[in-house]
Write a structure and sequence with these properties.
about 100 residues; globular
Length: about 100
């Protein structure tokens, strides 16, 4: 819900979906594994937030959920990539 609240200015909230995996909780755009917004690695004693700037995941150690807000700019930047990607696809479809 925190990630959804952060990116809501870029993506409509219904487009942000949580999907639980064995080793992490994935936060995805459009319920698509190819559009990860973040990963929450909370299964161990040390908690990590996985951030994406394209293909690679960067893990950042966090001690509390409130620290996710410190990465607002990065989460919104990733959401913009997916929002702009959909706009480009729509324009291409109209031009065809």
């Amino acid at each position: 819900m925190i990630v959804r609240a952060i990116v809501r200015e870029v993506l409509k909230p219904h487009r942000v979906v949580m999907r639980d995996q064995k080793s992490y909780c994935g936060i995805l755009a459009d319920n698509n594994n190819r559009k990860p917004l973040a990963r929450l690695h909370f299964n161990r004693s040390i908690k990590y937030l996985g951030l994406f700037d394209g293909e690679k995941e960067e893990r950042v150690k966090i001690d509390s959920l409130d620290q996710i807000y410190e990465f607002t700019d990065r989460l919104r930047a990733t959401a913009r990539l997916y929002a702009e990607g959909n706009a480009v696809k729509s324009e291409t479809a109209v031009a065809s």
